[in-house]
Amino acid sequence: MSVFRDLFWFFRQEKKAYITGILLLVIVAFLETIPPKVIGILVDHMKNGTMTKEVLIRWMVALAAIAGALYVLRYVWRICIFGSAVKLARQLRNELYAHFTKMAPSFYQRKRIGDLMAHATNDLQAIQQTAGSGILTLVDSLTLGGVVLATMAFSISWKLTLISLLPLPVMAIATSRYGTMLHRRFLTAQEAFSALNDKVQESMSGVRVIKAFGYEEKDVEAFRRQSEDVVAKNIAVAKVDALFDPTIGLLVGLSFFLSVAFGSQMVIAGELTIGELVSFTTYLGLLIWPMLAFGWLFNIVERGRASYDRVRALLAEDDEIKEMPGALAVPPQGSIEYDIRRFVYPGETKPALVDVRFRLERGATLGVVGKTGSGKTTLLRLLLREFDNYDGDIRFDNHDIRHYTLSALRMAIGYVPQDHFLFSASVRDNIAFAKPEANEKEIVKAAKLADIHDDILQFPDGYETVIGERGVSLSGGQKQRLSIARALLMEPELLILDDALSAVDAKTEERILTTLKRERRGKTTIIAAHRLSAVEHADWILVLDGGRVIQAGTHEDLMAEDGWYREMYRRQQLEELME
Amino acid sequence: MNEQILTSKEQRRILWRLLAYMGRYKKEAVLAFALLLLATAGELAGPYLVKVFIDDYLMPNHLAPGPVAALAVAYIGVLVGKTIVGYFQLIGFQRLALYIIQALRMDVFSKVHRLGMSYFDRTPGGSIVSRVTNDTEAIKDMFISVLAVFVQNGLFVIGVYIAMFSLNAQLALFCLFIIPAIGLIMKTYRRYSSVFYQQMRERLSELNAKLNESLQGMAIIQAFRQQHRLYQEFAAVNEAHYEAGMKNIRLDGLLLRPALDVVYLLSIMAVLSFFGISALESPVEIGVLYAFVNYLERFFEPVTQMMMRLSLYQQAIVSASRVFALLDHDEEAPFNPEQAPYTIERGEIEFRDVSFSYDGKRDVLKRLSFTIRPGQTVAFVGHTGSGKSSIINLLMRFYEFDRGDILLDGRSIRDYSRAELRRCFGLVLQDPFLFYGTVKENIRMYNEQLSDEEIETAARLVQADAFIQQLPGGYDHLLAERGATLSSGQRQLLSFARTIAAKPKILVLDEATAHIDTETEEAIQTALTQMRKGRTMIAIAHRLSTIQDADQIFVLHRGEIVERGTHQQLLAQKGLYYQMYLLQNGLVDAHA
């Protein structure tokens, strides 16, 4: 129940809704005890022959009024309590999202997106249930149960109440025991189901092999066996699941039996009227729900507790990239200087960069080349301050980049990542991503610079064409050029192209690079690439291998050396020849 | 798939098609329904017995010990009987539902295996898996919790009315007003809830899509400093989701339990008024009143249950429509007879003017002709898109070719039985497919006749024995995660062993040497030489080093053979092959 204490901040925040809701629930509980009472009174009138028109009308009017009141009150408390619970989910979801936007890449390396999604959906749902149904069940089973019991005991007969309630504790114990059993079997069935899922997955990824060997029928047989296992385990679940209703029915039936058996003796002994007995049994019916609800409550609360703990732990994750107090808020402009002794990715032991030192003047173009995994992307990610924990420093405009605010630093950088990520939105919104207020002219200009304008005009709705899962799919080259346009729209001081031209053909690449050179005069550019033609015209080229600089110089310098660069360059030229 | 496009007529058709599955389990269905009838009768008998007790014994103040004891015994007997029958009835329905889903799953899975390779190349594996497991699971939920509840409760409602009519027809008639009242509430609820619920689901999937996209693109969002803007966008979707949630709460509040409770109280009022008015003139049977109140009390809970499950039903119908769409898919694999008298003896392959197109527009193979003699090793080389993989797709009957013919031992490939073709061809793919199981099981696959000895012989032949012996447990080593602990070369050796163990006459290697690490390269080379002995072999290769000693090499370019000959002949031609060879060996001319 401690989860209620943890959620108290929210109950306080929504105190009006919760106080109203709980108050109404209590009133509803009291009102609910009246109709059975009325039944009893009228039965006694009928039996004693004291029934009059006035009596009947009076009570019917009372019942109608109660029905109306109950309807309204029940509606209102639902809005109050369930409405607040939905509000809680909304609030936590927003908080989570805001928190996610603050998390550094290392966080995303540690966590899987699927898990994060699960926290934001399933866990929030469980918490919502706790704040909604949880509160309802708690209040309702306590008040309704309490009020009904009190009415039965004090206004009818405490003796009969005790006797008739004898089977009910058995019910509570039995259902909670079934619950544990069910849970265990359910897990087994769940496992069987996920094994079946894996089996199908396996068959689908191996479908070529299965077909090549002609094992289709045998695979269907194997599937049948596993599927039958799922059925068997689900039947085991059903065998426990089916215990609930009959057990409850049996014990409630016994309760009724006891109340009628002993109650009728009391009627004959004159301790009870027949009307009271009828009321009594009706009350008994009202008690079933609170009894069952109590069992449920533990379930809901337990799940809510676990979920809330997970969400809290997530919200407590620290953002690793911190801004210094009094950090520079002006975007840097000027030379870039790397002096990195060593950088190791968090959680790894092998350094990703070792002794990388160079200076890049404002307006110059730097090329970074090397094999996959040589450290090209790492070099760029440090500049974006995706990681701060390296040995050494990077200076931009003569200040350590860690002395700028994140926003100021990133305002100076237009970044085109290797995995061109685009949003499922219109082409226009994607290009104007960093500057949503950009006008038509700016957008078209950026698109033209990135050599994607003509392609866009071919799309069904031009710049309004929606791309991504729900829209048209683009080729790799088109995606890359769109990401370039997105970065160019910012007119950044520093443009970073991380293997951003790999999917476009050589001619387009050449065209884009020439345009960039012309348009970005005086501004700095860093190009990391596999294809050496992309860096050929750079002012300085670094060749990385295993995180170290193995060669450096201009294209001419490097071609004169007998090394990786020259060999690679020749090989790539030939490849191009053969295309 | 858009969930809204299902008209109510389509929904009904889908429901009937699902229900038709019950026909396969007539015995179980009849038993479940029979038990349900008994259980319902038992459920209704209780209040009736109490009524008899009140009216015949309690009211006249005449508690005759004998008959009262008999009544008590009857009551307890009925109670216990009802409990037992009820238990088996519940299991019966669940069992029926599970059997139906099992049948449905088998249908879908078998259907999937009959589909042609073109279907798999176009459809993401994940969505097929969803059809077979998740969608059928949603249907199961419906069978268990919706259909069973509907049938049980529907029957109960009828039973209550029968009981009430037999007690007091006039009053029961009076109580009939409940039916249209509930019907009206249900209809209204369904009308709005299907819309609201749908809205809520859409908002939710929008919310999830937004979140998922943001998480994936977080690096970009941060690099371009758009955190605040995207937070605003997310908050807006979140707000819309909240609004949709509130709408559902309001609807549930207006029409679900609170509304049904009003109807309940109205029905109680009707009963009380009826008895009250008659009591003005003559004494009434209190027991009958008791029974009515009691029946009515039990009447409403099931109705609420039914209404709360309407949304589950909607979901199941959508899932079922997807499952049936797959079952009705007609893109079946190329046809071969189940039985045919012909066998492949020599292993000669001839392509005669074969043309083929994936999309019906652009030919990827253009009037291709070549012959491979028995026992020869032949290699196809060429760039991506040159058509070399298509040759294998046709030869393995993954796709149907359009024009020309493929002859095996001089007879059309279409004349052989499927089993004969599978027996003669052995295929090794670029990505060796390993599944969760031991090394032995991975080599044997479904070929149960294969002895352990044969497996080890095959492994030795392909040079896999050495590393298998090194594994903990050797041949019984469990390959977790599809062999992720092995190197790519070792995985490929295992798939070689699997293919060789099946003793094919014709060996087909589809880029089988593409991802080979230096450690296993030598073993692979030796393995290939061993495997070729006494077999026709066709290899598609990227690495020319693996095919240098082929008897014939075909260089493909845009669906046509542009060069053919042995390695030496092709080098002498100084054409495309020559250039590729230079490139791969780093023997670059100085002038380049």
Automatic annotation (TrEMBL), chain A:
Transmembrane regions: 21-43, 55-77, 135-156, 162-180, 248-268, 280-301
Keywords (A to Z) from UniProt: ATP-binding, Cell membrane, Membrane, Nucleotide-binding, Transmembrane, Transmembrane helix, Transport
InterPro entries referenced in this protein's UniProt entry, alphabetically: AAA+_ATPase, ABC1_TM_dom, ABC1_TM_sf, ABC_transporter-like_ATP-bd, ABC_transporter-like_CS, P-loop_NTPase, Type_1_exporter
ABC transmembrane type-1 domain location: 19-303
A GO molecular-function annotation: ABC-type oligopeptide transporter activity
SUPFAM superfamilies: ABC transporter transmembrane region, P-loop containing nucleoside triphosphate hydrolases
SMART domains attached to this UniProt entry: AAA
Membrane topology: Multi-pass membrane protein
Keyword Transmembrane helix on entry: yes
Cellular component annotations (GO), alphabetically ordered: plasma membrane
Main location: membrane
Cellular compartments annotated: Cell membrane
Iron-sulfur is among the record's keywords: no
Pfam families, per database record: ABC_membrane, ABC_tran
Domain ABC transporter: start-end pairs: 335-571
Name of protein: ABC transporter ATP-binding/permease protein
Organism whose genome encodes this protein: Geobacillus thermodenitrificans (strain NG80-2)
Lineage: Bacteria, Bacillati, Bacillota, Bacilli, Bacillales
